[in-house]
Amino acid sequence: MPYRSEFSALSLASIRKHEATPVRLPGENIADEIAVGLRVSWNHPVLRALLLRTAVASFFVGFIASLYMVFAVRELKMTPALLGVVISIGGFSSLFGAWINERLVRRLGFGRTLIIASAATGMPAILPALAHGSVAMCAAFLAAGQLLDMTWTISNINEVSLRQAVAPPAVLGRVNSAMQMLFRGLLPAGALVGGILAQHAGMRTAMLTGALGVPLSALWLIFSPIRRIRNLASDNG
Predict the structure, then answer these.
(1) Is residue 96 within 8 Å of 150, Cβ to Cβ?
(2) Domain hosting residue 85, numbered range
């Protein structure tokens, strides 16, 4: 997209809210800031649940991310063009998820929406792992999985919103950085384990293991104060 960076710059320039300059302690470096973000997250019951959920989900997402393309082309015999069409469905699904999120929160409550969406994030990978039959049938399985990509969008929107609501403003950037580092850092570990499992048990088994592992991460949210949050604004002051 040639104009994506220009559009992003214009969007950022239109923001009028003034943000305080983060305070960096003398001698503090990036490792110290990440350590602060991890420590603050671990000591806060809500942030700790988000941290642990991120760690488990990232590890099992690594299984799926490393195998999806190879599995679709090699095992399901899909052409790159057909696979591109299927994946594009996920983009539209994500947009729909962003559009419907507020309505879900009003209907179900904030905590319940986040937990249900987080638990459902394994579905987009379960369907591809179960794909069988003709190429057209396999494409239908993958397309159905892409339609459920909205679960990731809904989960991410509410997770970031909750993180911003409960993290102390002075360390919000450090908390966000620590969460991102944890997610990006555990993806390769999951990819390695998923690749080893695929080599010994097959790609379908590895994909299904990852798909079933991702929703288990929602258990950290279920057994936390998050399940009791009905309205984010009122429940967090």
Answers:
(1) yes
(2) 30-227
Q: How far apart are CA 189 and CA 63, in angstroms?
A: 9
- Answer yes or no: is pLDDT of 173 > 90: no
Number of other residues whose CB lies within 10 A of the CB of residue 133 = 10
Give the pLDDT mean for 228-237.
Answer: 73
Residue 4 forms part of a structural domain: no
- The CATH number covering residue 77 comes to 1.20.1250.20
Tally of domains in the chain: 1
Write out the two tokens for 133: 């039959």
**Residue 48: inside a domain, yes or no?**
yes
Confidence of residue 136 (pLDDT cuts 50, 70, 90): very high
Task: Establish if 124 belongs to a structural domain.
Answer: yes
Residue 100: burial class (beta carbons within 10 Å; 0-12, 13-18, 19+): middle
* CA count, 13 A, side-chain hemisphere, 97: 25
